[in-house]
Amino acid sequence: MGENTHHSLRHDFTNYKTYPLFTQDRATGDEQFNYYGVHPFYTCLESDGQSHGILYLSSNAMEYTLLPEPGLSFKTLGGVLDMFVFVGDSPGHVIELYTSLIGRPILPPFWGLGYQLTRWGFKNTDDLRAVIDRNQKANVPLDVMYMDIDYMDQYHDFSYNRQSFAGLPQLIHETKLNDNLHWTLILDPAIEAVEKDNPVFMDGYNRDVYVKWDKSIAKQDRYNPPNVPSDRDVLYGKVWPRGPAAFPDFFKNVTHEWWIRWVGQLHKDLQFDALWIDMNEPANQNDQIYHCPQNKYDYPAVRTKALYGNGVRELGHKTLCMTTKQGDHNEYLHYDVHSLYGLTETMATQKAIHAATGKRGFAVSRSTYVSSGRYGTHWLGDNFSVWDNMKFSIIGILEFNMFGINFVGPDICGFLSNTTPELCKRWHQLGAFYPFSRNHNCIGNRDQDPASWITAGHPEVTDAMKVAFSLRYKLLPYFYTLFYKGHTRGQTVARPLFHEFPTDNNTHSIDEQFMFGPAVLVSPFLYEGQKQVKAYLPDTNTVWYDLNLNQSKPGYVVIDDNGMIPVHLRGGYILPISSEPNHVNTRTVREGGLNLLVLPDQSGRAVGDFFWDDGDSIDTIEKLEYNYYTFSLENNTLDLTVEKLNYKTKQLIKLIEIVSSSEGQTWTVTLDGKPLPLEVKVHGGVAQIPVNIDLIGKSVGEKWSLKWKPAF
């Protein structure tokens, strides 16, 4: 269930813990509070390795209690309750079934898998440029820069400060052209109600796009700020702008049209590639000025954790009053659809990005609901720069992958409070394996971008980041293929160990390690001063390889800190990886070639696949504008089969690396029955076979067949 902070992935049924589900603007960390999203879905692992899941679909305020029977008590304050049961052959199968109902996750653009950098607190364009320059000078890989609310003029959406951020359009244009940087701008839903210098508000007012008071609420009982129009019953609150603000109603079709129009206007000034939508629970900071009028919706008779667990007595606390109305015909009470606000804004924002840019982009939303992954993605919100928040982030990314939002991650190094060199180093090592990998920082905090640590006297932080992300960029072809399978089949990208090894009881409670797809096992350093990791390598029948491609025995292993996050590769898989040793952004991954890393299992078999498209266009899968290949190894024969071939761009497999126990032996190798003009020797347990296979050189259904045998 989520979105709550859970201190363990496997739930504890011994203490009658109750968690609320009701979207709220609250920094993460403590258990038993509502956070930004609502996902009333859980999965259960059965004793034989099969699994089931249950979705309690309701958009009203809810809570659930873990009972020692074990059991689950579920309460909702009203509305419609639909219950869906998913019966699967395995835990992963349950998620595939779940996403077949709620919608498959988006396919992110390829550049979105690179390192992303932001902070709240950029002072001006020169300050922003200096951060970019110092990271590029330090050869830090960097693909995406963000702008928080600093760039806006008086915190108005669809504007930028033409004094402090003069030159920002030129900086964006130059870095896109010269450095392959992509840009993401923040937008908040609240629109300041200023008639003269905010045409966005008046355009929205004239189009009637805002959330309204129900007409049953007397005008004297409403919050009525001075000098704002009041003839349309608009509810006003307060967020970042200086004055009262109105809240767009994204249940209305006209609101989508209005949002698309102004996003397009913003893109004419600042050529962003993606949008970051914040404060969309929706957040309202006006609780010090007004309270909702007495009514049965804001002050329900039923005690609920969404109220009393938060120390307040009204559901409209820090958000909109429940008696407001939404919808094209004012058919919805906010009481019934409150937790859908972020979802509906994400839907409008995805449309707006596509219309403005003509490219895939993405909308990264703070608030989410069931099916949000179909339209956008999520970061885990305002975390703290403390060790346990780094640990809990693993649980967060695993839960959201199970919720159908697989492009997800927290703020690396933490957002609130000052990080430390050791914490930021370890967090970057872990962050190299978040599906969505972004460093974000709060205003007033010390700098924490990778290159800042050089001048701060801690170059080891920068160096550790570069080593960890060098591995991430090398693995991006494998990562991207996982996102393809998420988008088309509903598979998770980051997943718990028990999803791959459900009958291994030792995996059931592990939440300090995780799998990235089926073949990569990540075992991070999570504690201050930690010099060793005790990791579990599941299943006695599985072959594991370390990053030096040495075999590791299954079971518990102790791994010393050697400057690299502990990662193991699973036998039985073939990984497409970048052939280039170093990268400063995803362009060099795309322009370089591929290697195939072949990791045989105990029987000498392995399988793999590779998805490739242009990495940026909309609906390439739906339009069949992509290539897809499958690989299989058996009996000293490696077959590469063309399954789809509609993206006719040259892509070379330069090298095939096969892990072998025949150390020192020389192989003779044939490709499609023709001898390769070289002898291949197994050295260091690996045979390296240069092949230069052009992956558009054969038709669908055809294959390349690589065979080898020991020389006589």
Write the layout of secondary structure elements.
Layout: E1 18-21, E2 41-45, E3 51-57, E4 62-67, E5 71-76, E6 82-88, H1 91-102, E7 116-117, H2 125-137, E8 144-147, H3 168-179, E9 182-187, E10 191-192, H4 199-207, E11 212-213, E12 236-237, E13 245-246, H5 253-269, E14 274-277, H6 305-308, E15 324-326, E16 332-333, H7 334-337, H8 341-357, E17 363-365, E18 377-379, H9 387-402, E19 408-409, E20 411-412, H10 421-431, E21 438-439, H11 452-455, H12 459-474, H13 476-489, E22 494-495, H14 497-500, E23 514-516, E24 520-522, E25 532-537, E26 544-545, E27 551-552, E28 555-560, E29 567-570, E30 573-578, H15 586-591, E31 594-599, E32 606-612, E33 627-634, E34 637-645, E35 652-659, E36 666-671, E37 674-675, E38 680-683, E39 686-694, E40 703-710
Parallel strand pairs: 7-8, 7-21, 8-9, 9-14, 14-17, 17-18, 18-19, 20-21, 30-32, 31-35
Antiparallel strand pairs: 1-4, 2-3, 3-6, 4-5, 10-13, 11-15, 12-13, 15-16, 22-23, 23-24, 24-29, 25-28, 26-27, 26-29, 30-31, 32-33, 33-34, 34-40, 35-39, 36-37, 36-38, 36-40, 38-39
